[in-house]
Amino acid sequence: MHTLDGADGFTAFLSGRKAVVLFHASWCGFCRRFRPIFAAVADAAPGWEAAELALEDEDDPLWDAQGVEFVPTVIAFRDGRPLGRLDARPGEGLTEADLRAFLAR
Known about the structure:
Blueprint: E1 2-4, H1 6-14, E2 18-24, H2 29-44, E3 49-54, H3 61-65, E4 73-78, E5 81-87, H4 96-104
Parallel strand pairs: 1-3, 2-3
Antiparallel strand pairs: 2-4, 4-5
Helix pairs in contact: 2-4
């Protein structure tokens, strides 16, 4: 799994790829629980390249640019264009079953 650093790293990683990116924050308990699940499941998913992007400041322009309102959020991309998204449910986060169903589409 790739770890992305800011907007430049994010844009460069997406170029020419079919990728799934986890947006998370260290202060988020749901993110801390989901991150190892994402790493295991997304890395093993055929045809996808997995990456994570930590967003520590809610004023980060990537939050707005990608429409991230809740974390964790998973967004699938092809050549930098969003294909779909999996947003955390407030008060619940995301589960392994959520991610497997999302990646199977």
